[in-house]
Write a structure and sequence with these properties.
Helix content: 25-40%
Strand content: 25-35%
Distance between the termini: 106 Å
CATH superfamily of the largest domain: Transferase(Phosphotransferase) domain 1
């Protein structure tokens, strides 16, 4: 049974300490004596005469060492001479450690520290460096248990002013934390070099290659003399399984990099090349891209790396690709391919020229009824197709409707789509969510109909029916209040459009339209009034049947009536009918 002369106090948060061991009489380049060691440890408990240390590096039992203990109260270091009374290998979580019971004697002499000036010629972290680390976002953001293993795995590097220490396109094997000096990051693209960032003390550079394995994405040149702390890929890979928080932090840095860089180096993802940023969302970044063999322009949707760390988001991203990979409809964006690389997922899609409906609405305010009906008719056509595949989009909103220069509409972002009847988990965008989504009830196609009604109201009036900015208040209103009559804002709204909005936005799903076909029927008189072609073009891969009708000039009105009835029946059957007069 262990006996102690003084009681030890366990520390709720371990203190930081530095161990210096060996090296007396050491001559660099010889093997006569042990090379001196200097490394950080956690101080778990202590008394006047002893302490319990947790170390990632083993200390021989009975060995003597110098111990510097950080005093957070006055930000100074207390000095001790220690002896390892016992050493016990242990595992904390998934990481291996050594617990060391040590006797301590206060030491006011600076001699032991001076011996280790030779260690600092190789520049392992010491007291002054810890003061720097403490100021950085890196250490402020990481849990306490990550600090010691991380500091013990970095190495020092000096860079002269003007030196290029990272080269675009080369493999990356380390990232760097800047302790002193400044550098500039430049992207070389199509024969031109553009500055994309200036970085100084406390900044991290090179994290992309470390995290993703991609080639370096920019040249980095020292503007002044610099001192860096580097973490190699090999050391990072040793830490990563035990400390996911470190990966999370570096991923957040990487995500900020993607968010703030308008100019990017070309990146190769399988047979595709990413060229420019096209748009950004909460879960993904969309790039312009090119199929290198075919020369075909594509859009490439990359899941953000911080999202890619979560299995549920990865599953959702895969689900989006699987859901619409087989869709062939002119009002739904096409999916060509999916790639998994660089620790994330890329969906390769049809490239769309134009703007999201949200951007058009922000620029124009309320839209004229003719344009609203033209857009709604196409959205209905796309939703009709998806619903016949038993798929509910679940996030119909202006940001997910893309309008081409010729006013052709595409529904995008099926990332939240589910099969009809799926139990909801309050999924969607609050300002367009149906009451059943908000109340986590099973959802079906009527949830998309509700969202379409809210969006149509917004197109017609220039504002949502409940314009509150607080999302929770809006959701409460969707459940408890009927939307206001759009005719109270736009007096000349056509009756079929007004009726469509009010019925689509009914709080009770049973009082809404039960299918998209019913909305198409409601708006069909306006299609004729506004001379808007109804129904989608023939989907790819479908057969075509043509026939001619011979008639006299006086039979035209009768023929038109018959053709209108026939066309409605054709479209209800899921087919497309095109007519022309010759």
């Amino acid at each position: 049974m262990e006996r102690r002369q003084q009681a030890r106090t366990s520390l709720e948060t371990p203190d930081i300490a530095i161990v210096r061991i060996g090296g007396a009489g050491y001559v660099d380049g010889t093997t006569l004596v042990d090379h001196p060691q200097q490394f950080f440890v956690d101080l778990l408990n202590r008394s006047l005469g002893g302490a319990l240390l947790k170390s990632t590096i083993e200390i021989d039992q009975a060995s003597t060492f110098h111990l510097s203990v950080y005093n957070p109260a006055d930000k100074t270091w207390d000095q001790f001479t220690g002896t390892a009374a016992w050493v016990k290998p242990t595992t904390v979580g998934k990481a291996d450690y050594f617990l060391i019971g040590a006797s301590l004697v206060p030491d006011s002499s600076d001699a032991p520290v001076a011996v280790f000036e030779m260690v600092r010629q190789k520049r392992v972290p010491g007291e002054d460096d810890f003061a720097f680390f403490r100021r950085t976002e890196l250490l402020r953001s990481l849990p306490r248990e990550v600090v010691v293993p991380l500091i013990n795995n970095v190495s020092h590097k000096k860079i002269a002013a003007g030196e290029q220490f990272i080269t675009q396109g080369e493999p990356g094997d380390a990232c760097f934390l800047i302790e002193r000096g400044k550098c500039v990051a430049r992207v070389e693209k199509q024969g031109q070099v553009k500055t994309v960032a200036r970085l100084g003390e406390g900044s991290i550079v090179g994290e992309m290659s470390l995290l993703t394995g991609e080639p370096r994405s920019a040249h980095v040149v020292a503007e002044t003399d610099m001192e860096l702390w580097g973490l190699t890929r090999a050391r990072y890979d040793q830490l990563d399984p035990h400390y996911p928080e470190l990966r999370a932090f570096l991923t957040a840095v990487l995500t900020r990099w993607f968010d703030t860089r308008e100019v990017i180096a070309e990146r190769h993802i399988g047979k595709y090349t990413l060229t420019d940023v096209a748009g950004q969302g909460a879960y993904a970044i969309v790039y312009k891209g090119l199929h290198r063999d075919l020369g075909m322009q594509v859009a490439i949707k990359m899941m953000r790396h911080d999202m890619a760390m979560e299995a549920e988001f990865i599953d959702g991203f895969h689900q989006e690709a699987k859901t619409i990979a087989g869709f062939r409809h002119e009002n739904i964006v096409k999916i060509y391919d999916i790639e998994e690389k660089y620790r994330t997922v890329f969906i390769i899609m049809e490239y769309l020229e134009g703007n999201p409906l949200r951007k058009i609405m922000e620029a124009d305010g309320k839209l004229p009824p003719q344009k609203v009906v033209k857009y709604v008719q196409q959205i209905c056509s796309g939703l009709q197709y998806a619903h016949r595949q038993q798929i509910v989009h679940q996030d119909i909103k202006p940001g997910n409707i893309f309008v081409m220069p010729d006013d052709q509409v595409k529904i995008v972002d099926f990332g939240l789509s589910v099969p009809c009847g799926t139990e909801a988990m309050m999924t969607g965008t609050p300002y367009y969510m149906s009451p059943e989504q908000i109340e986590c009830l099973p959802v079906d196609i009527r949830a998309d109909i509700f969202a379409l009604g809210i969006m149509t109201y917004e197109m017609v009036t220039g504002a949502r029916p409940f314009p509150e900015k607080d999302a929770w208040k809006v959701m409460d209103l969707h459940v408890s209040e009927d939307i206001p009559d759009p005719a109270g804002i736009v007096a000349d709204i056509p009756d079929p459009l007004r009726s469509m909005i009010l019925r689509a936005c009914a709080r009770d799903p049973e009082k809404r339209y039960q299918t998209i076909d019913e909305i198409i029927d409601e708006l069909s008189p306006l299609l004729e009034v506004f001379d808007i072609a109804s129904g989608p073009m023939a989907p790819e891969g479908n057969n075509r049947t043509t026939f001619s009708i011979l008639h006299q000039a006086g039979q035209q009105k009768q023929l038109d009536r018959l053709m209108k009835e026939f066309k409605q029946k054709i479209e209800k059957a899921g087919m497309v009918m095109k007519t022309s007069n010759h």
